[in-house]
Amino acid sequence: MKKQLLAIAHARSGDKGDTANVGLIAKRPKDYPLLVKHVTAARVARHFKGMITGKVERFELPNLHALNFLLHGALDGGGTISLKTDAQGKVFSTALLRMEIEVSR
Amino acid sequence: MTKVVRIAAGQGFWGDWLEAPYRQVTGGPIDYLMMDYLAEVTMSIMQKQKSRDPSLGYATDFIPLMQRILPVLAQRKIKVTANAGGVNPSACAAAVAAAARGLGLQGKLKIGIVTGDNLLDRLDGLLARGHALTNLDTGRPLRDVRDRVLSANAYLGAWPIVDALRQGADIVITGRVTDTGLTLAPLIQSFDWRPDAWDRMAAGTVAGHIIECGAQASGGNRLLDWQRVPDLANVGYPIVEAHADGSFEIVKHPGTGGRIDVPGVTEQLVYEMGDPAAYITPDCVADFTTIQLRQVRKDRVRVSGVRGKPATDKLKVSIAYSYGYKAVGTLVYSWPDALAKAEAADRLLRQRLKDLKLSFEAIHTEFVGVDATHGPLARKARQADDIPEVQLRIGVRARDQDPVDRFTREIAPLILNGPPSVTGFAGGRPKPEEIVAYWPALIDKQVVKPMVEMLAV
Questions:
Q1: pTM of the prediction?
Q2: Do B203 and B308 form a contact (C-beta atoms < 8 A)?
Q3: Is the CB of residue A96 less than 8 Å away from at least one CB of chain B?
Q4: Which of B10, B15, B114, B212 has its CA 20 to 30 A from that of B398?
Q5: ipTM of predicted assembly, 2 dp
Q6: Which residues of chain A neighbour B276 with C-beta distances below 8 Å?
Q7: Domains plus CATH for chain A?
Q8: Which residues in chain A have Cβ-Cβ distances shorter than 8 Å to B305?
Q9: Cβ <8 Å between B276 and A12
Q10: pLDDT tens digits for range B72-101
Q11: pLDDT in tens, A30-79
């Protein structure tokens, strides 16, 4: 069964230079293992293909039922250099929530 | 006796809600008002202002704001920590002192001024002595852009603010101090924490991180159940209620709007986060994977368990340098075929820029309403055939100003000589903008000497 992350998680994103960070938080603690299993750095890199130029790093925060992703090269140079509307990566959060993962019933 | 210290967030950035500080000092008991003003490139703007007028170079909004709350501060013995001083903390303090005297507060206030963060005049000496100030993102040495540097400031931590508070400062005005240091310092001062009490340093740093963006911890920009956040019009900014053992609670004044709950505090904790196990500040290395959150009751979240590690021997340096120029132009295309018209205009414009042999580092097109924020992930919107309107947003960037200037003259002609159903050009020709870019680096802590001065009103 396919599930969109929007249904089981919420998120906030921000910037550090040309890197966007996305914190992905399970709405219910019991869904956190699903995020850990399915939302890997490689999967997120594929999701954002064409939108970022660098690698994706993932960090785990089991205490907050959250994952933190660093999307390098996401902001067209970042900050003042960037020509993007979202120069500070504020809505990479909701872009990640578009992802669909395959979960067993 | 268990002592509680209350630190209220008043501003999350220069430009934040002007009502927030007044409401924080009048809405209930607090001990400290913390106001964060400095974003990465703010210092360079201030440096420019100071070079034109030596009495400027700080967050000017801070003065009328203080004028409004100074009588309450004096009456209720509330102290202030603010990095509103920018590149000219002394001038900022003098302006606050003048405002205080105007209110008849002579002899009733002491202002602490924290400086020593500004490295601009020392830059050549530092480079000569082997401090390369290598760009943390690109690995390039600062020498490459030295002649274009506009400002250079080390991020100071909590300790110089603690010094000022210990000398009796009621208001501490700083230059480039970390956002988190503005909250940690009052806690160190109040509870007499030692510099190597790393878990306490980390706890105060986490407290600072939670409230440094103001209402972003109390219901603002909150995604989960956003429609159910009550009364944002009257949002209460967050307040830290801290205990000597490093545990604290996030609350807001009674009768205010917004919400303080575990999901909301969690959203703020992950904001602008790097490696959560190593959140590096001048004061410690905080481990965000140790944070425990618990909803104590409505609008009250307890934060405990925070662990920290020793501070590193480096300070981060924020350098601003002149990079080049950019401009962004927009036009709006309407139904029918709104997207197809905008796409045609984009192709046409790019062809003209090419024919003019203009050289750009980047040309960036967005179709606002279709793909501006989510790019290729927003395919479904692209497929809709009845989009009422699309804004074509096209930007260019170059090292020289000339091609950018020429670009700004190529937008308006499209109204008469491009695809039909176009409007939304009332703003006129786009303005070329100088790009001041950010250069993050590290420097040995020992070469930076924080200084504290006191100014009696």
A1: 0.96
A2: yes
A3: no
A4: B15
A5: 0.98
A6: 59, 61, 68
A7: 2-102 (3.30.70)
A8: 63
A9: no
A10: 999 999 999 999 999 999 999 999 999 999
A11: 999 999 999 999 999 999 999 999 999 999 999 999 999 999 999 999 88
